[in-house]
Amino acid sequence: MSAVQAEIEVHQTSIPVWLVWSVTFFFLAYGLGCYPILDNNEGLYAEIPREMLASGDWRHWIIPHLNGLAYMEKPPLLYWLTAISFAIFGENEWSARLVPAFSVLSCVAMILWFGWQIERVTAARLAALMFITGFGVMAMSRTLMFDMLLTVFFTGAVMNGYLFSRSGAREKLNWSLGLLAFALLAKGFVAIILFVAVTFTYTVLFSSSVSDFLKRIIAWFNPKALGIFLLIALPWHIAAILAEPIFAWFYFINEHVLRFLGKREPHDYYAGAWWYYLPRMVIYLFPWSFFLPVLLFVKTRNPCQRMLHIFLACAWIMPVLFFSVSSAKANYYLVVVMPLAALQLAIALEDRQFGRAWGRGLVGLVLALLFGALAWLASKQGTSQFSSLLVFGMQSMQFFQAFMISACIVSLCVALIVWRLPRLGIFPFAALPALILVGLIGVLQAAAQWTSTQPLVAELSAMKIKREVFLFRVFEHQSSLPFYLRQPVRVVESRSSDLFWGNKLHKNNIVISDMIFDKITDQQLVSLIVLDEDMPSFIDKKYVSKFKNSKKIGRSTLFMN
Question: What is the CA radius of gyration of the chain?
Fold first, then answer.
């Protein structure tokens, strides 16, 4: 194929920008607020901004509070932005998720902008679609956590840094370090570590000599750019140190250094093997990761942009290496590499004209076989605790089988379309993530009593007699409770990691002992929420005989004296 023919084919498979934005808004808006705030992380990060607004105390905007106790584990930018969202739109599910949703929207805009800057507009549009429809981003774009906010600022910082390294434009340097400062406020010093790792690595590879390398490094230390960084990054850190004496040790040493070494107190994070993130990369980019074999078996038909590919490779490989070496591992860490990983994959596929039409069809067939196998396995499964779950009017296993069969049919249809209509490239595969999104929202709605305390709070609200609500032991697994009750909740015999330091630092009446709770039950009517896993410990307590009524809701039991 000639260069002219290749250019014509690329043009034919170009995706209109309006279609990119239409798909983006669908994936962000569909069902954003139609399921409750999830327990554990989302519940924690929704309650903190709610308390910021409810406290009326500006100091809570410096040292955030969770369930009435100081919470210094993370920087405050996510809380500030979510509190602003609550102030404007009210305290509800969709307003709680606006920050990650707008973060993803901004990432799509940056991918498109960067594609224009590097003259790869067509690939950037495909990359934006891969990014927004990839399974990992699909989930994280509608979950209130720090990582999407980190992603948008980190991505902007490294993109502008690359453009500065190529052109020497000071404006790009100012933008790079300014966005890096916001990334620091989004999730802490991990942003700087990742930025330095990426920038240093590609600078080494770009440099023609030692003197060239030193010249490139020195160029980063521009007084104006550093001033912009410090102006954004320093004020909160200084204010927090002045407001809470232990903050400096806790935040810089315990939360960063000791977490990386696996010695943080308390030890409330997961570990894993060095290859922990490799299969998760495939899942995060699903279904687009199934096109990776094209890179191995199809030669590029366009001239290789060596420096661009080096930068893109550094931008996702270095963070993955850092996370792999770290003792603390989590699935959601990977979202930070998705914009530039998707862009490199899109560019590489475009350079290979997305493989041959029959090869794209083969990917669809492989996916169809995968979903068909999962449907067959589901038919062999027995009952489980979720068997009574109704998703779109079907029992859970019936829904799972029906969903997998539907995904199989969609994959077969996509395989036929991309085979018979090669002009469409690989865009038709976006139908599969759309189906997955609809199914995922249905499951989250149906599983509310297992994933959130919203149904439990509805039960409490329906009671004629009002009682103070207490939690037994683990706060995180029921973290959405104070958000829905609109007030902090006292915890009996706490085993909570997130309340550990807040309870330790200052005297409070939030975390109480068995003895105090026993006295309270003699003086007032209470409701106590106990998780299934904590039931053996609860039934051994001497005050258990005071609770005459109980009701099972999801994985918790509500006891009343």
Answer: 26
